[in-house]
Amino acid sequence: xxxxxxxxxxxxxxxxxxxxxxxxxxxxxxxxxxxxxxxxxxxxxxxxxxxxxxxxxxxxxxxxxxxxxxxxxxxxxxxxxxxxxxxxxxxxxxxxxxxxxxxxxxxxxxxxxxxxxxxxxxxxxxxxxxxxxxxxxxxxxxxxxxxxxxxxxxxxxxxxxxxxxxxxxxxxxxxxxxxxxxxxxxxxxxxxxxxxxxxxxxxxxxxxxxxxxxxxxxxxxxxxxxxxxxxxxxxxxxxxxxxxxxxxxxxxxxxxxxxxxxxxxxxxxxxxxxxxxxxxxxxxxxxxx
Length: 289
What we know:
Layout lengths: L2 E3 L1 H9 L1 H9 L9 H22 L2 H5 L3 H19 L8 H20 L10 E15 L2 E13 L5 E9 L5 H4 L2 H18 L6 E9 L13 E4 L5 H18 L38
Parallel strand pairs: 1-3, 4-5
Antiparallel strand pairs: 2-3, 3-4, 5-6
């Protein structure tokens, strides 16, 4: 049977091949859904709904939406879905959910007030939200992903692929340099161009990072929404594509089955071990120097 891979798998493999092996080949994953995942999914739904109304109707109608109520409903729905998937165990406490909800209200208020800094209706159109991507990597492996937002510049014809990321305090420099994060949009750009027959140099990419918390006693104005456009030129596209191909060729058999006899290397950076679900259980971790 054909295996399906996602960017999250590639990201995990890039950070620690052995963790990917334990999670997927040995099926030992114990990761649970938490408040961060619930909040992230809910914010995606709300902002996508807002932008659909803004572009397909009017900005005034979008601003009239009860975004706070939508966020509450989405968070409850995601909470109940997660609880069902976890066998009746609550994925988060009431206090955690309330804190995240209040943070979401602040983000949405900032987004509405400054929406024009990020999304302009004049001269731009919405191509789609939650656009599915599917790409056959070999006879037994299929890549699958979803693009949050695609916007078109009606004058130049350029497209922009946008991905929302929720974060506690935003992305620092190390996060911006982490290809395990940033290569997601590079890969999506490549597959979107292939899928729809669009010149790849006509596509831009951008992350919009939604910050739950702002720093106290800060000397400069802070924004709840941070923009970041990773390098996505020919070199970046080739490097990311090569990494994906290496992953597929190493971890999968031509038939699509897992390569159980391959050697899977543990994380190079010992700090990655601190948050690993397998530390002390299925893996001793990598020693710190």
